[in-house]
Batch of 4 targets.
Target 1
Amino acid sequence: ITSALKNGDTLTTALARSQLFEDDFLHIVAAAEEVGSVPEAMAQQAEYWHEEATRRLNTLAKLLTLGLWFLYAAFMVYAIYQIAGVYLSALGA
């Protein structure tokens, strides 16, 4: 990206060549370049993507918590059946 900018490419072109950014982001950068408000657009995008990352991480944390509870419950059921099996076999049933 840096070398593309040094060669005179626009910020949008340099970012697009890297193939790291979504089209929506590139359109916003292109519009910001045309009107001369790149710093403001970048600040807004930084805030948006920070909130998006936070939301996704919270969702992931909730799903992982739910998964751990499921594994814990499955383990407890398994342990109960194992203990009951040992107990019943000791009784001769």
Note: Helices lie at 2-6, 11-18, 23-35, 38-91.
Target 2
Amino acid sequence: MQLDSTVSKLKHLLKKINPLPARWQERYARLASSKPYLAKFVLAAISLLVLFLAFFLLFLVLLFNGSFGPIPATASLKKIDHNLASEVYSA
């Protein structure tokens, strides 16, 4: 009985803090009841997209924080002059 009470409290809390509009929740519930595999696929695809965006933002923060080393200035990148590849291909 204690577990049922805890689960119901958790469901109530999740429903309270859910950031999705009620209209989206209703549409997903209809989709889940008619086509459960498609609903799971949509949920997985959205989750992967959010995860990808989170990792991309983390990568950008780490990059600009200098975790992978210093980022060279644009001027120093423009001054690079290596003709080694041209020599190898022409040989």
Note: The longest helix spans residues 36-65.
Target 3
Amino acid sequence: MIPTTDPGSSPEPTGSTDQPSAGLHPASGELLGPVEVAGLLGVKPQLIINWIREGRAHPSAVDAVGRNRFTREDVDSLRSTLGRRRTGAAGPEAGSERGG
């Protein structure tokens, strides 16, 4: 039997940074960090961080250490935002509708 606490040590937070990453496909209900979210969306993590700072991305939670955490629903919302940005971006065809 494994003891749940060691009487000689202080309690450790459950979200220790020593634990390995859950990867890109965490269990249902698990929260994701900006790196995992970026991996799911195919963008750089810095874009997610910038969106948080600009108020364009809204994490569902902030853990005790201050890290932003997202749900799958948050990722879906960001995916739709990303799709609007890409389809709304001016491409090579954007200027071809004007008569020239």
Note: The first helix runs from residue 34 to 41.
Target 4
Amino acid sequence: MNRPALLVLVRHGQSQRNIVNKRNHFYLDEESRQAVKGIPDHRIPLTSEGHRQAAATGQALLERFGAFDYGVHSGYRRTIEPPRACCRHIPRRSARG
């Protein structure tokens, strides 16, 4: 296996938890807590702004680096959604033989 010559790290876009925590490690009020109450951390989705950020990032990555050979993410919903949005801007290559 050839090793990649370039590693690009991208953080997920805005998630619902980012909004309710308001840059704190705790909830500021009960209303904030209720917005994500009962949703396991790994299922917290991106906001519409987070999806917009992911699409813009995908376009910028394509313009700067071209297509990538590999993508890796965790199993958290908010880390799965951005690569999908990013990849919409990257043309698919034919399978390698």
Note: The two ends are 14 Å apart (CA to CA).
